[in-house]
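Support case: user asked for a sample of complex input and structure output to validate their parser. Sending the pair below.
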Amino acid sequence: MKNTEQLLDLQAYVDGELTEERRRQVEAALPADLDAQELVSGLRQLGTLIRAYEPAATVPASREFYWSQIRRQIEAEQPKAPAASAALGWLRWLIPAMGVAAVAVVVSTQQTPREITLAGGGDVTVVDVSSTVFRSESDGVTVHWIQ
Amino acid sequence: MPVSVKNDYPSEADETLVKWAQQGDTEAFEQLVFRHRDKIYARALMMMRNEDQALEYSQEAWVKSWQRLVQFQGESSFATWVTRIVINLCLDQLRRQKRVRTESIEAMEEESGGVERQLPAPETNPTAGLEQDELRRRIDEALGKLTDAHRTVVVLHEFEGLEYKEIAKRIGISIGTVMSRLFYARRRLAFLLQSLKRERSE
């Protein structure tokens, strides 16, 4: 009895999946191996049989019904009219551009450092909404307060 | 676009209808659907073994083929191209349902070599004497008795003519597993067809 590897090798031979060298080796060994011949012949016969009598089926719906469902989906996914598409094309650019502009405005207004002079000789610099810097000239220290 | 002249769609070749459909002619596309719908449905049915799903995926394949029609360059026949689309849809679905990659007891037997001990080698002409329609029906029945995983490799290899590595890629399994599943499936088919022959002679 052949092992699995030998059987799969013979199948690959039938399917034309072996390398040229391996194919020659199998062909050289076949005449002396009746089991292999039988398997090769059987696999070929089975392949020929099922390909020749490939099961067929008929759509269980009328032509009109079958097509109407396809057409409905096709029409639902049709691209918009050219004029509308052109307008949408501008919007595609305009909306992100407006978004970028809005973000730029917010960032520029928030990140402008503001200095507040405190009583006692200290300065507080507000870098953005979430951090504060306290600098004391007299003590020679700078404190960053991050919220 | 050839819509100003009433075309004789049924008598046109696929290539012409495809060209017209690519220009937006839905009547040409309808003719293509009418011409090949049974083949596409049959392939979906063979993969899914469920009429409702086969109907749904075959229609979805036609919608997708319309959407991708500009990509069709004629490297294969139009019917082959749509068949590949429906197969991919079915494979996606089978994968989602874990019906093609799940290991089963049968698969474990197959991997351990149990199949060689249990099933006979394919017999030459096991269905001699059967009528053609009966033969088709019997082969369909036998295919239906395979697991989804085994039937899928048979369909892709025998009916779609795909090589091992292409099947492996499509299903997402190793080439070794493709070979093993194919071998098991063939032996089981041979066994089932032999059984049918025995039933008939009794």
